[in-house]
Amino acid sequence: MTIPAANNTAAPRYLDLLRHALCRDHFPDARYDMSSGSLQLMPFDPALRAEGRDWPLEAVTMVGTKRLENLQTCCCTALEEEIPGDFVETGVWRGGCGILMRAVLTTTGDETRKVWLFDSFAGLPKPDVKKTWLVLSHLYPRVSPAGFVVIDDYALPTCKAAVDNFRAKHSIHSPITTIDWSGIFWRK
């Protein structure tokens, strides 16, 4: 990761602390459980939080520490390789990934890129192939060559179908890399 010399030790520690604060795994909160069909509060489970398998009560992201680490790596790689373009997140929930992307830009001294966040802000939508397809159709053509596409909900059958169909229709053969049980990414 390219970090200004003055922040050489502080910046990585700051980003590490921020990732843990965003998912609240160092000062745990409760989690919602819907497996019984009704919303119930359950105790914090560090394994679920790391994998992004819970619905946190207070954390500002659902993606968990593994996907946050991957997101930071993707952002830093894009900066190091001077891949042009802004950073974008769709379906932001409470904005944790957007906060991390902005922090990466700040700690590396990048003042030219923006972070764009898109959401209906109407709650969690029902899984729908059309929404995923719509996002990919509008944004994928704008991804720079060697840029990253990160999908957080690939474990949902409708999301997986939309992604796989989009990649097939557009002859996208870049290998998919698995992050965790639900997250994947590829480079354009």
In short:
With 188 residues, the protein is α+β, with helices and mostly antiparallel strands.
Helical stretch count?
Answer: 6
Helix content: 25-40%
Largest sheet: 3 strands, antiparallel
Overall average residue pLDDT: 92
CATH architecture: 3-Layer(aba) Sandwich
Strand fraction band?
5-15%
DSSP strand tally: 8
Structural class: alpha+beta
Q: Can you tell me the overall shape?
A: globular
List the helices and strands and how they pair.
Elements: H1 10-23, E1 31-33, E2 40-42, H2 46-51, E3 55-56, H3 64-80, E4 87-90, H4 96-108, E5 115-118, H5 129-139, E6 148-151, H6 157-169, E7 177-178, E8 184-187
Parallel strand pairs: 4-5
Antiparallel strand pairs: 1-2, 1-3, 6-8, 7-8
Name the features.
6 helices, 14% strand, 188 residues, alpha+beta
Describe what this molecule looks like in 3D.
The protein has 188 residues and is α+β, with helices and mostly antiparallel strands. It has one domain: Vaccinia Virus protein VP39 (Rossmann fold), CATH 3.40.50. 39% of the residues lie in helices and 14% in strands. The strands form 3 sheets. It has a 3-stranded antiparallel sheet with strand order 2-1-3, with no helix packed on it. Strands 6-8-7 form a 3-stranded antiparallel sheet, with helices on one face. Helix 4 links the parallel strand 4 and strand 5 (115-118). The longest helix is centred in the middle third of the chain and has 17 residues, at 64-80. The model has no long low-confidence stretch (mean pLDDT 92).
